[in-house]
Amino acid sequence: MLLMTTVDDLPAEGLPYVIERTMEKGAKNIHVLNGITKKGRVEYIFFVDVDKQHLEDVSALLALELGTLGIKTFKTEHIPLPFEINSRKVTIEGKNEQFESEVQVKYLKNDDDQVISLKAEYEDIKKIAMGLESKGIQIPLSKLKTIIEAKSYNKILKEEEIVIKVD
């Protein structure tokens, strides 16, 4: 189920708190968008993905924290796509340091079981970045994510023959 509500009197500093508390109450996901109301005021539009079992708790929290007078509900259907999660060992070598860790990689597949997309898990990459920093190795999180995902793609490409010609 998808909930939608708006608020035009919440300071931006309150957003992270409301988002975290909503997730704690059982929301599967939450998105907050900026908008402009009919009176020209800036507003936030909350979209909350929630199971029916958590609907009452999440709605009560939104009413309490946002002071909303109502919440719209939309019945939705989730179309799951085939994917698998694999653990990959990551070894990073610096000047005189070596760092090893594991990262979970989600592989999205098509109907022919071919990988069409992949994504390394944020929390795993964050853990690696912080571990590297503690050893004096500075790699930005976004670059680390790019490198790990590129290496994961490379592993797929080596398992099958792929020829790319550029004229």
Record the SSE blueprint:
Blueprint: E1 2-7, H1 15-24, E2 29-36, E3 42-49, H2 55-66, E4 72-74, E5 83-93, E6 98-109, E7 115-120, H3 122-134, H4 141-159
Antiparallel strand pairs: 1-3, 1-4, 2-3, 5-6, 6-7
Helix pairs in contact: 1-2
Question: What is the compact description of this entry?
Answer:
By secondary structure, the protein is of the alpha+beta class. The protein is 32% helix and 32% strand.
Can you walk me through this structure?
The chain is of the alpha+beta class and 167 residues long. The chain folds into 2 domains: 2-74, Transcriptional regulatory protein pf0864 domain like (Alpha-Beta Plaits, 2-Layer Sandwich); 83-159, Ubiquitin-like (UB roll) (Roll), CATH 3.10.20. The protein contains 4 helices and 7 strands; from the N terminus they run βαββαββββαα. It has a 4-stranded antiparallel β-sheet with strand order 2-3-1-4, covered by helices on one side. A 3-stranded antiparallel β-sheet has the order 5-6-7. The longest helix is centred in the last third of the chain and has 19 residues, at 141-159. The chain is extended, with a radius of gyration of 21 Å. The N and C termini lie far apart (50 Å).
Uncertain spans, ≥5 residues at pLDDT below 50? 160-167
Task: List the secondary-structure elements in sequence, H or E.
Answer: EHEEHEEEEHH
Q: Tell me, briefly, the overall form.
A: extended
CATH class of the largest domain: Alpha Beta
- What is the number of independent domains? 2
CATH architecture of the largest domain: Roll
Largest sheet: 4 strands, antiparallel
Give the C-alpha Rg: 21 Å
Structural class: alpha+beta
User: In angstroms, what separates the terminal alpha carbons?
Assistant: 50 Å
Residue share in helix? 25-40%
Strand order of the largest sheet: 2-3-1-4
Q: Count the E strands.
A: 7
Quickly count the helices.
Answer: 4
Integer average pLDDT: 87
CATH fold topology of the largest domain: Ubiquitin-like (UB roll)
User: Strand fraction band?
Assistant: 25-35%
